[in-house]
Amino acid sequence: MTGTPVRRKPKLAYALVALAGAMAIGAVQIGLSLAITQDSFALAGLTSQQHELDLRTNALQEDLTGTSSPQSLAASAASLGMVVAGAPSYLRLSDGAVFGQGTGATGASTIDPNGAGAVSNSLLNDVPVNASTADDTTPAGAVEQSAQELPPAITDGLPSPSTR
Fold first, then answer.
1. What is the pTM of this model?
2. Residue numbers of the chain with a pLDDT score lower than 50
């Protein structure tokens, strides 16, 4: 007999194992994809939070720069009643000798940090001059005097003389 050999039917178990393996691989890929996507959302949230914190840090640094500027320090010192001293004096520690005038500052300062020649500092627009001593009270006469020195507010254009 020289006939062709009988062809065998593929076994159903092999097909089911191959199909189950393919489905398992697909399920693992979907699971990993979801895990990576979830991590990317968490990373995006943390990145936006870091950006907001960076903006807040920059704003606080700008406020600190403005309040620690020489102009702000001079205005705060003047509002506390401090005055600029005259010529400096030096003390030699070895024998206690004083070099210079050795006198204290007078009651009036020669420098007015808030005077007519003062240049405004854009970093100090919203910062109170003396924020650290807000509990101190100022005399009523000082407030009235500084209000009288200010020019009148211009609301309807520049003032002009009236003509007939």
1. 0.41
2. 131-135, 145
